[in-house]
């Protein structure tokens, strides 16, 4: 019983702050954020990014637009981050297959896992849509990193830098709603 | 009704250092006019030409970007008209060749061949919108069209083309992509 209480107490302390993620995005040299709103990242990421004069937000109508826009920017040595929900990632798979994977472009995607239970691994989620994301990335050869707590934020800059160094896509999976404060 | 290749020949007479983003049948006919480094052929994900162009336009505000889109392609990415209208890049010129069919996929008709692309672009927020049915008129105005402050949109009403050879691996070769990147790095 005491162990359960302690585990719950520890779980309650696990947090993910949007400000930390945004700082990592900026440290990665990202100038443009391309996005369709996602309720997972709405308050903690998209809203502060929209108000941040040092990042340029491009709001798009459908997620696969982001893949083309990021590609055009890459040809001009401008770094972009795509901020979308996993449903939009799934909807964009052909664009990701062609533009990102086959043409070996550093398309960097930050993907909100709507409905994911942060205490579980995504592959063990009760949500079918969440459960299949990492296996799809694996099948396409796309490196992926789970960002579920503040200690995971340190993965972001190396992952984006590696994507550009290798000229290959990367998926940063947001497993918990980032806090706005 | 015009021939697309005639329109492109007229356009080519006025193109200098602009990046030309062309897709499918338009890419084949533009490429047939001769090699140039600032060509960007958008293949593999039908519909994204306008999005590739927007990325280029935002990242290179001092260089003009010309999109040679197809009607079937644009129908797959109509939202990009709204995105471009909102971003309002002054250096983007968007042509759509309207032959009312999916030419690269067997020339089957569009779901609605009478769709008004120029009307869609106008309501999406493009700064200038044109429509051309006559080659003489296009030849007369094309320099003006591509020189305007964008985003500019023009529908080219064209015939179905002669049979084309779609050599995608050559069109989108790594060498072409490297040449484009090197060209853009010159500024």
List keywords for this structure.
heterodimer; A: alpha/beta; Rossmann fold; six-stranded parallel sheet; globular; B: 187 residues; alpha/beta; 19% strand
Strand and helix layout:
The complex is a heterodimer of chains A (181) and B (187).
Chain A: H1 2-13, H2 18-27, E1 30-35, H3 42-50, E2 56-59, H4 63-75, E3 79-85, H5 86-91, H6 93-102, E4 108-112, H7 128-131, H8 133-140, E5 144-147, H9 156-166, E6 170-174
Parallel strand pairs in A: 1-2, 1-3, 3-4, 4-6, 5-6
Chain B: H1 4-12, E1 19-22, H2 24-31, E2 39-41, H3 49-59, E3 65-70, H4 71-75, H5 79-87, E4 92-98, E5 101-102, E6 108-109, H6 117-124, E7 128-132, H7 135-147, E8 152-157, H8 168-171, H9 174-185
Helix pairs in contact in B: 1-7, 3-5, 5-6
Explain the overall architecture:
- The complex is a heterodimer of chains A (181) and B (187).
- Chain A is of the alpha/beta class and 181 residues long.
- Chain A has a single domain, classed as Rossmann fold.
- Chain A has helices at 2-13, 18-27, 42-50, 63-75, 86-91, 93-102, 128-131, 133-140, 156-166, and strands at residues 30-35, 56-59, 79-85, 108-112, 144-147, 170-174.
- Chain A has a six-stranded parallel β-sheet with strand order 2-1-3-4-6-5, with helices on both faces.
- Chain A is globular.
- With 187 residues, chain B is α/β, with parallel strands linked by helices.
- Chain B has one domain (4-185): Thiamin diphosphate (ThDP)-binding fold, Pyr/PP domains (Rossmann fold, 3-Layer(aba) Sandwich), CATH 3.40.50.970.
- Chain B contains nine helices and eight strands.
- Chain B has helices at 4-12, 24-31, 49-59, 71-75, 79-87, 117-124, 135-147, 168-171, 174-185, and strands at residues 19-22, 39-41, 65-70, 92-98, 101-102, 108-109, 128-132, 152-157.
- A six-stranded parallel β-sheet of chain B has the order 2-1-3-4-8-7, sandwiched between helices.
- The longest helix of chain B is centred in the C-terminal third of the chain and has 13 residues, at 135-147.
- Chain B is globular, with a radius of gyration of 15 Å.
- The mean pLDDT of chain B is 93.
